[in-house]
Amino acid sequence: MIVTRFTFNAFAENTYVLHDETKACLIVDPGCYDKSEQLLLSDFIKTQGLQVTRLINTHCHIDHVLGNKYVVDTYQVDFAIHEADLPTLRAQVVFAPRYGITNYEEQLPTHYLTENESVRFGNTELQVLFTPGHAPGHVVFYHEPSGQLIGGDVLFQRSIGRTDLPGGNYETLLKSIKTKLFPLPDATIVYPGHGPNTTIGEEKKHNPFLR
């Protein structure tokens, strides 16, 4: 599985395009806000000869959903979230103007993800892990063969997701990390929703929130 990262919008949110040798691809958390960011994403997909098969969100805070409608409209694909995060998604119509975002358009999901469901594209299969705490319906996507995890805003390099937004809970987040992420192999690469990559092993040793 090949992972390509784009950093979009004023929140420096990481959007991921996943693809394999079949050229099928999956878009995770499109944060593309303006026309230039949308064009950057679509030009990459076009020049790489990729076929978008699906859109998925780790969670539905505004910085991770700004490009949802653009992706669905452009590629006519299925869009999936965890059902517990639907209220979070619906609330962004209200929250967006508070952040100075005036052109946000809501895109509702066509499918709900469940724990341990397999998300497939091309020859690749991702496992869905339910990891609430930062958001009530947060999920992450694990590719066991390559040891890669698309982690959203659960675990960062030397940090963890914030829990002061509606639906957040500090103890729940710590439990998600310790019971769902830390059992993964230490070499697992974590691709977070913000900032640089890290590994499970590095965060076990050095994350000050998890000692």
UniProtKB/TrEMBL annotation:
<keyword id="KW-0862">Zinc</keyword>
<protein>
    <submittedName>
        <fullName>Persulfide dioxygenase</fullName>
        <ecNumber>1.13.11.18</ecNumber>
    </submittedName>
</protein>
<feature type="domain" description="Metallo-beta-lactamase">
    <location>
        <begin position="12"/>
        <end position="194"/>
    </location>
</feature>
<dbReference type="GO" id="GO:0016787">
    <property type="term" value="F:hydrolase activity"/>
</dbReference>
<dbReference type="GO" id="GO:0050313">
    <property type="term" value="F:sulfur dioxygenase activity"/>
</dbReference>
<keyword id="KW-0378">Hydrolase</keyword>
<dbReference type="InterPro" id="IPR036866">
    <property type="entry name" value="RibonucZ/Hydroxyglut_hydro"/>
</dbReference>
<keyword id="KW-0223">Dioxygenase</keyword>
<dbReference type="InterPro" id="IPR001279">
    <property type="entry name" value="Metallo-B-lactamas"/>
</dbReference>
<keyword id="KW-0479">Metal-binding</keyword>
<dbReference type="Pfam" id="PF00753">
    <property type="entry name" value="Lactamase_B"/>
</dbReference>
<keyword id="KW-0560">Oxidoreductase</keyword>
<dbReference type="GO" id="GO:0046872">
    <property type="term" value="F:metal ion binding"/>
</dbReference>
<dbReference type="InterPro" id="IPR051453">
    <property type="entry name" value="MBL_Glyoxalase_II"/>
</dbReference>
